[in-house]
Design goal:
Radius of gyration: 22 Å
CATH class of the largest domain: Alpha Beta
Bound molecules: zinc ion
Number of domains: 2
CATH architecture of the largest domain: 3-Layer(aba) Sandwich
Number of helices: 11
CATH topology of the largest domain: Rossmann fold
Largest sheet: 5 strands, parallel
Helix content: 40-55%
């Protein structure tokens, strides 16, 4: 994985190249007919245009006299793309809320509680995706439930849909995060990169906050992520197969308490592990 610092560095290089190019070549958009090459002309033609970036009005550059500087939105976009490719696994990229399958929760429609729990969790996921686009500082979600109950599916769907809506999301699998933090223990630079990014990214997904081998040191790192995000009102989506009591035992009372304060909690249950059901489907046993 490339560190955030590397990403920033390469972006600065790209910006310098852009600056150099801009000084010699006028900016043109090959997608537009010659008469519309000037963006201001385009804006005048379409005064109701709304911009994703109000600072640069989606030009990607800011002019200071004759000198063009890259807008901060370009850096954000670049980082977002890095995370999009680096962080969400291939198998989870296709998860979408609209493809959520209730039939896994009620085989023969006999088990209503499973289905009701799933419906509440799905609705919460949908509301979260909508709310994040209106208000970036709402509550997060904690999905609890046994292994194979669809928690990661919901969390990955949320991540995918928010990324599609151009929001910055970081999807971290907790055991991998712990490994990375341990591995970066001796190189402070990388550790700060990962920790800082996890702390400050607008939306963080922590998948599988489970019964891992937490040390006092990793517990403290986890606390610093959760605590920072709670104080800055940055929403976090967490999946865990631990009960709240177990969570206190594994990651500590103060971190668990902050998760509860900053999240809505939804429990998913199933009769049979969904991965086993999918296996049976695939192998034609249903
Ligand atoms: Zn901009």
């Amino acid at each position: 994985m490339r560190s955030v610092k590397d990403i920033l560095k390469s972006n600065v290089l790209a910006s310098k190249t852009l600056n150099a190019d801009l000084k010699t070549t006028p900016y043109t958009d090959p997608g537009l007919p010659i008469a519309n090459q000037n963006y201001e002309t385009t804006d005048q033609l379409n005064p109701a245009a709304t911009f994703k970036c109000p600072i640069c009005q989606d030009r990607g550059i800011l002019l200071e006299g004759d000198v063009a500087h890259p807008c901060s939105c370009m850096l954000m976009k670049k980082m977002e793309n890095q995370f999009r490719h680096a962080r969400i696994s291939r198998v989870l990229k296709n998860c979408r809320l609209e493809k959520f399958r209730f039939d896994y929760y009620a085989p023969e429609m006999l088990d209503k509680p499973h289905c009701e729990g799933a419906a509440r969790a799905l609705n919460a996921a949908k509301s979260f995706v909508e709310e994040c686009q209106q208000n970036p500082h709402g509550l997060g979600i904690l999905f609890t439930g046994p292994v194979g109950s669809g928690k990661t599916y919901l969390a990955a769907s949320i991540a995918n849909e928010l990324m599609e809506a151009q929001l910055q999301v970081l999807f971290l699998v907790v055991p991998d995060l712990l490994d990375e933090l341990r591995a970066s223990y001796k190189s402070e630079v990388n550790e700060m990169d990962l920790l800082d990014t996890a702390r400050t990214i607008p939306i963080l997904i922590l998948d599988d906050l489970g019964a891992h081998n937490y040390t006092e040191w990793t517990r403290n790192r986890l606390y610093s992520i959760i605590n920072y995000r709670m104080n800055e009102l940055l929403p976090t989506v967490i999946t865990s197969n631990l009960s709240l009591d177990e969570m206190e035992d594994y990651i500590g009372v103060r971190t668990t308490s902050r998760i509860i304060q900053s999240s809505r909690v939804f429990r998913l249950t199933v009769e049979e592990d969904i991965r086993h059901q999918m296996y049976d489907e695939r192998e034609g046993k249903k």
